[in-house]
Amino acid sequence: MANTGDYPSVSSSAVNDDVSGVSPVGARSFPAGVVTFLLSDVEGSTRLWEGDEEAMGAAIARHYELLGATIALHGGVRPVEQGEGDSVMGVFARPSDALAAALDAQRAFAMEPWPGGQALRIRLALHTGQAQLRGDNNYCGRAVIRCARLRAAAHGGQTVLSGVTRDLVADRLPDGVTLRDLGAHRLKDLSQPERVWQVCHPDLMNDFPPPRSLNAVVNNLPSQLTSFVGRDAELAELGQAFAAARLVTLTGAGGCGKTRLALHAVADVAERHPDGVWWIELAPVAAADGVPYIVARTFGLVEEAGRPVLDTLSEQLAGLDALVILDNCEHVLEPCARLVEALLRAAPALRFITTSREPLGIPGELTWRVPSLDEETGARLFVERAALARPGFTAEGADAAVVRQICRRLDGLPLAIELAAARVRMMPPAGIAAALDDRFRLLTGGGRTVMPRQQTLETSMAWSQDLLNDAERALLRRLSVFAGGFTLHAAESVCADEIVDRYAVLEVLSRLVDKSLVQADVGPAEGRYGLLETIRFFARGRLVDAGESEVTQQRHRDYFLALAERAEPELVLANGVAWLNRLERERDNLQAAARWCDATGACEPFLRLVTALTLFYEWHSHLQAGGRWFAQALARDEGPSSLRARALWGAAHVALYGGDFEAALRYAPRALEMAEALGDEWAMGRALNINGLVTAWLRPEPEQGRALLQRSIALGQKLGDNWVIGAGWKLVTVSWMFQDDYHGLAPALGELRRVAERLGHPYFIAWYHATVGWAGLHRGDFAAAERALETAL
Fold this sequence. Notes:
The protein is of the alpha/beta class.
């Protein structure tokens, strides 16, 4: 019947000779090593079967004959009838033979007078990769899955090639064949983008819509570096669940694969949602009130002064037909429930998928428990991951039975299986099984037959740690202080000591990546690493046990304090946007550092950190969060100091731009009074700036405000404080705008332009053009205003 999925389920049974007309294998052997797979599919077969079952049966039989003949004619073998309906697999030792077979098949299909007038349109995909041939003559593994995903992106009548296959056949094309570059596409296996090529020939239809890939859907689904094994039945069932309910929660024990299953199930249904698919990772969110903020940040929404973020989300998302995935909700369950329930009511077309160890518990929720892997699928996962750790690894004979035993003892938990598989670099499967047995006896006394999943995972991780050397063990537990990932430089600065030399961190970190204990993301320019949340939780416990928690947290705090203070003067220069983005990537770590300052009463580092982040809070719209951090840092009873005066400026600045005028009016005068009393000209320049805006705007007394701003600019010029100069002239233009005085505005605009061009910072340049546009609107010169505002944007 119809094709129900993209993952081939390969069995050893062949199509009957009386159906296909050709023996699937005949006298040929199954190709091994690097081979080229050909996978077919009949487009719209469900509809065709429902329309005329008798005619469709005859047409499908003829389609098997044609495919079988062309595969055999060009030296390929056809090991199976796919377990997913009417599809067929062909396997070729040479990619040029696979291409010739695909061309002949499509030409035959185009000319065939189909029974009953049926018009079968076949989509074909070719991909070359390492064959994984099991003992029952089954092909499996990443290459088959990749080919199936490539086929899923094609249209009926179309033949597509992967980039690697195209490179191998480009110099040996059949007569009349050209290859059309369809561009790079993210396929639904969520691996790295694939460059897709179409086979074109004068005898074939050559014009098709764009491939059915994730490129056609707005999404932020993360790429995966490893293949997704099995779960065919679960994916099909989840597809039905997503259609039936607007909220589906995947539950299960830690390590059971909730996140990975949700990710691939979402990719399969992405095309249903014209406004996109939005993946939101909640593991780094420590505070309950952070949930709506990270959702708003994902959608690119900004805080509105004096208004709850949830209200903004409800209004802005009301008309969207989108799918939102909240991953790892268990530690912020109540705020997730409140947010989801409010948005489901406000946005009738919005749908949610959540992963959590327990349901959200709100009306309309469909709870779907993620099962463990069965032994066969678990063994496939083990072998694939083990082959990454030890290339060429296979599990034959006695090893196959041991691998199944390992998967059974690990209760089918994917994370535990992956951790175990990574150990084949150091010991054979029998050694792994023996090590597991020893640890299980410690937990159960040898008498338990059913193991709680969380205990099984804890045992697997404890055992994994036991297999590490002292340096690996030390680095893993220290990495647990990072929130939301880290760079190599951060790991070297925070985690190195006499046990792990700074220059050895890269090597040790690489080994932890190899052993699946640390995740690596090579996408960002600087490279980024992170721990799975379950592993991070486990490692944090070991950090406490080792008595290293306090010293490592302090190093973490000092590193990110230094980063914030290094970034502060750079933010107003031409490369300031890059520094802002770097701070955004480290926002979770910066907040963790602030929490540590607060928890330990470290007043001086706390004030330094939040003050250095003032402009980051403003320009990346973290104003309410910044306001809370300033309030906590300033709440401690400390005497007058330059640091406190500077922090009062930052608190006033964030409060005013965040719409908390009462706090701005309270902080701003105190900042100026303290700075003047101490003679701190840097703090005076900034305090004069914020007091000038408060005076011009909130009093409102524009002339007095300008006088304060001019004093601020003069101090900025004396000290070389670029922000004070740029922001000062920006606010002088604002003060003239308050008065609708265009004559006074003109010279201030000239000064602002001069400063903006010198600094090269897009914020001041954009502000200049926006002000020119505003002036044009008020003069009635709409054409000039439009040009200026477009430039500002």
